[in-house]
Amino acid sequence: MGPDPYDRNCPTRQLLDRIGDQWTVLIVGALSGGPLRFTELGRRVDGISQKVLTQTLRSLVRDGILTRTAYPTIPPKVEYQLTALGRNLSEPLDMLDRWARQHMSSVQEARDAYDAEHTPASA
Q: Burial, 15: exposed, middle or buried (Cβ in 10 Å; 0-12, 13-18, 19+)?
């Protein structure tokens, strides 16, 4: 039997967790336009801490989704870019991004209706 992400011990579960992480989605999306430096990524992915950005980038490099290139300059210059595997991943993530943008108003309407129905009336 092949990989089964529904089995908690299957390595594909870890990969799905990585791919489904909000920061991975945003970092891969940011890099789909070309390589960026650490500080550029930090500015592009609003709200991510330096620590989480560092950890996520390290994991994505380890997984073969990104490459990290350090240039011997002063000050040091480090760029991150998608590998072929990362570019392949960016395609379905881009579809998710488009879906979210197209359907956000419908989701917001559903949220508002739910909240109106489930919020206790003010006394």
A: middle
